[in-house]
Structures are given as structure tokens and as C-alpha cells.
Amino acid sequence: MRILQLLTLMMLVGFAAQSQDLDNMSLEDLKTLKGEKEGVKKNIDAEIADLDKRIKEFPGWTKGFGGTVGLNFGGANDWFGQDVETATSRGLGLAFNAFANNNGSKSFWHNTLTTFYNTNNQKNTDLNDDGSLDDEEEITNNASFFGLNSLGGYQVFNNFFASAEARYETTFNKFNDPGKLTFSAGFTYKPINNLVIVVHPLAYQINLPSNELSSASGAKIGATYTGDIYPGVKWTSELNAFLAYSGDSEADAGKPFSPYSAGDLTNWTWFNTFAVADVFKGIGLGLSIGLRDDKQLGYAKNVADPGIQMIYNLGLSYSLAN
Description:
Blueprint (H helix, E strand, L loop, with lengths): L1 H23 L2 H30 L3 E18 L9 E17 L3 E21 L5 E25 L2 E11 L8 E14 L2 E14 L7 E15 L2 E12 L17 H4 L1 E14 L2 E12 H6 L8 E13 L1
Antiparallel strand pairs: 1-2, 1-12, 2-3, 3-4, 4-5, 5-6, 6-7, 7-8, 8-9, 9-10, 10-11, 11-12
């Protein structure tokens, strides 16, 4: 008990002495001391980040989510899964990414969710010659994406796994109009913990609605990566591509510009999110960009030569993982 009392007294004396020293310091001395403390904090933060990385490499579940949300700037360019393909918005926006991964000693199971939603309301008003209301139309510009992916594998040797995957894509505006469901099997390569490369030569993609879009067999390739590209700046990237082996040889009146070649049914989607962490109490700034090349979706909108589609969102960001 006496030892505890003595230690307590020494701590109090130490704090009091430090307080007196701070009171006697000049402005330059205080700034120098602050810089030293910030340097110590930076080193501790780096050590904590390294420990967190090592913890995640152990077998078991890791879960997390992040994205951008709030009043922000968003838009789309030729995003054919919506009524208004090209639009800009300064309103409600959401870009959300979530994952639940299980890594075992010989197997893995990775599940991801990717969502985009931008909306902006505006009114177009027509008046009569006398100034009275003739017609008023409210237009809502929406751009959205919903993607759900599940990939599992069993280790064959080193970092190579025999794997199978199911992937579903659609929009919030019109569920399954369009929609994609892709099943595939092959192998997965995991050179490092936060990079996954998928090569599945056996794949089948179902495109909905079936009376407007054609389904096909082919190969599925993809890659996902999550990491810091700069201290405090996190990058999340997900690429998914479907390479059709053959086209749809029959012309269909309900499918514009048919019959389709294998190139017409080949498509890819690439989403990137950049987040500047902790600008204020865990809230940062985020930029999410989605690119897509899918000619068949453009054909369904009667676009003869569709190019690269784009959706983006800029706003506040928040992330959480465990």
C-alpha cells in the first residue's frame, strides 16, 4: 500500500512540474514541443496501422464498409441503366461499399457489396400568355448501381485457389431492368492479402429482361484491391469483365441492332473509390467513379455506337472495418 501511495505522489509531482514548465515556456518552445508530440503520435499511428494489417492476415472473418454520402456532386454520362442516361446532380448522393471476408488456412470466402445512387429533382414550368400555369413537370434525374458478389476458393498450391463465383448487378431505379447474373468457375490468385485476381474460363451470364437482352457463355475475369496509396488516402478498386465466347446469331425485333456478335455481348465494369480519412472526427472526403462498357445496354436504348459509360459521386466519406 505504501508503495502505491509513493508512486501516486511521484506522478502528481511529475505532472505538477511539467505544468509549471509549460507555464514558463515561450511560444516557440511550445510550438517545438507540440511538433515533437505530433511526431510521436504519427509513429504510434503507423504502428497501430501495421498491427491492424497483421491482425487481418490471420484466419477468420474481417468485415467493413465505407463510401461517400450526403449533399454532394454526382452525375452520369451514358449510364444506360436509367431513364436519363446523362445527368448531373447537386443533391442527395450515396456511394457505398461493404465486405465480409473469411480467410482460412486453406480456403477463403469473400463477399462484397457495391452501390451507387445519385438523385436530383427539378421542375419545368410552362406558362400561358396571360401568365397562368399551363403545365408543370417534375423531372428526377437518377443514376444508380447495385452489385453483389460472392467468391469462394480452396487452395491448390501456394497462392493459387480453385474457385467459383456468383455475381449480381442491377439498378435501384428499375430492379432487373436491366439486370445481370453471372456464374463462373476457374482459379483465383492472391499474391498479397489485399489483392485478389480472378480468372474463370467457365462462365455463363444471364441478362435481364430476356426479351430485350441476350445471355451468353464466356469467361469471367476480375480483380479487387484495397490499400493506402498515400498516408491517409485509401483506394478501393474492383474490376469485373465478362468475355463472351459467341454471339446471338438470331435477329430479334425486340432487340435493336441484333443479331449480336461476341464483342457485342462482352462487357466490363470498373469501380474506384478514393477516400481521404479523418478530415473531422472520422469523417473525410470521398470520390467514387464507376466506368462501364456494355454495348448491349446501349443497343437497348437505340444507341447505335455506345461508348464508355460513367457514374460518379463526390462528397463526405466514412469508413469502418473490424
